[in-house]
Amino acid sequence: MKLVADQQELAAGIGWVARGLPHRTSTPVLLGLLFCADADGTTVAGTDHAMAAQVRLNCQVDAEGTCLVPGRMLAEITKLLPPGPVTLTAADNRFVVRCGDAVYSLPLLPVAEYPASTSPEEEHQTVVDAGEFALAVGQVGVSAARDDVVPALAGINLSFAGESVELASTDRYRLGIARVGLTSPVEPFDVLVPAKALGELSRAFAADGGQVLLSLADETLLLRNHDRSAWVRTLSGPYLPYRRIVPDETPISATVDRIALRDVVKRLSVVADGMTPIWLEYGVGSVRVYAGSGDDASGAETLPITGSGDSLTVAFTAQLLLDAINSFGTEELTMSYTGGRKPAVLTGGQDYLHVITPRLLPQA
């Protein structure tokens, strides 16, 4: 096999696939990237059994062939090479990389031991805008659990129905719900996918622009566009009934400048370290945001608001509040309540809402 490719395009393609490779495994061939070059072009693929990725390289094929190369090492080499054409050659059980005067040689891995790829029958195919889908995944993913003690809580539930898909995720302390339109109606179906993997994949497809094809096949969610394809193994469901967490009515609401609130919470987080709460005290036309009291470090700032309902004082964990604010990209943020000890609903004019549980503490 012999290929010639541009260094930047090569590094980007190889780097993306290599990021999904395992760091440690009892199956050494899974540390490799599978190159396949033929008359139809060249692809690079990798898998760790939980997810897989494949990208088509824009390169010149001088000699066809298939080989398996140590993935992370190759990714680092191609990333650090100078700009220009790069020649890749596989022969005599070696993989040689040449760029100008630079020459690197890597041992090949046994292709025969690499897991065979299968093409299960796909169902429930639909198409979404790649950018809108990645935005929704990023917003909802904030609410997913950071560990897999309860695997379902580390996932994002995708509920397809009609002309939209609803994405939801919760770690029991917060909940994110977003909706994205589909290009054509689909029959209802749900799928639960690991949040971290889906976030990484959706960002890559969004960078390509255009649309992404989603389909379900043999307990895997597949994503595909013209040059890139990937699958991620689904989690067992069904997902918990998350809509019950969202209050039916929120008679108290306040709209505030999102960036200003974010900056205030950031500053107060300096004194609200650990489990020290950040308090929001709503009054007529303003909200006083403060943290700390007594002999401890403390701080307070006041922001203008517009809103309706009774006065209210509520406490939140600093990091959860900051994560919630940062999950929005709007200029303004509306925080709605049924009371100081009930879940708060955050909205920002997008097809996305975030529910956050307050700290149940006596007022400072």
The number of distinct helices, counting runs of at least 4 residues, comes to: 6
The sequence of SSEs as H and E is EHEEEEEHEEEEHEEHEEEEHEEEEEHEEE
CATH superfamily of the largest domain: DNA Polymerase III, subunit A, domain 2
Record field, number of beta strands:
24
Q: What structural category arises from helix and sheet content?
A: alpha+beta
CATH C-level class of the largest domain:
Alpha Beta
Runs in which pLDDT lies below 50 for 5 or more consecutive residues are none
Can you tell me the overall shape?
Answer: elongated
Helical content stands at: 10-25%
CATH topology of the largest domain: DNA Polymerase III, Chain A, domain 2
- Taking the alpha carbons of the first and last residues, their distance comes to 70 Å
Spatial arrangement of strands, main beta sheet: 6-2-3-4-15-14-13-10
Describe the structure in your own words.
InterPro entries: DNA_clamp_sf, DNA_polIII_beta, DNA_polIII_beta_C, DNA_polIII_beta_cen, DNA_polIII_beta_N. It holds the Pfam family DNA_pol3_beta_3. It is found in: Cytoplasm. The strands form 4 sheets. This protein has an 8-stranded antiparallel sheet with strand order 6-2-3-4-15-14-13-10. The relative contact order is 0.11. With 364 residues, the protein is of the alpha+beta class. The longest helix has 14 residues, at 195-208. Helix 1 packs antiparallel against helix 2 (71-80), helix 3 (130-141) packs antiparallel against helix 4 and helix 5 runs antiparallel to helix 6 (318-326). The chain folds into 3 domains: 2-113, DNA Polymerase III, Chain A, domain 2 (Roll); 123-244, Roll (DNA Polymerase III, Chain A, domain 2); 248-356, DNA Polymerase III, Chain A, domain 2 (Roll), CATH 3.10.150. It has helices spanning 7-18, 71-80, 130-141, 195-208, 258-268, 318-326; strands spanning 2-6, 32-38, 41-47, 51-57, 59-63, 65-70, 85-91, 94-99, 102-107, 123-129, 155-170, 174-194, 211-217, 220-224, 228-233, 252-257, 277-283, 286-291, 299-304, 306-308, 312-317, 332-337, 344-347, 352-356.
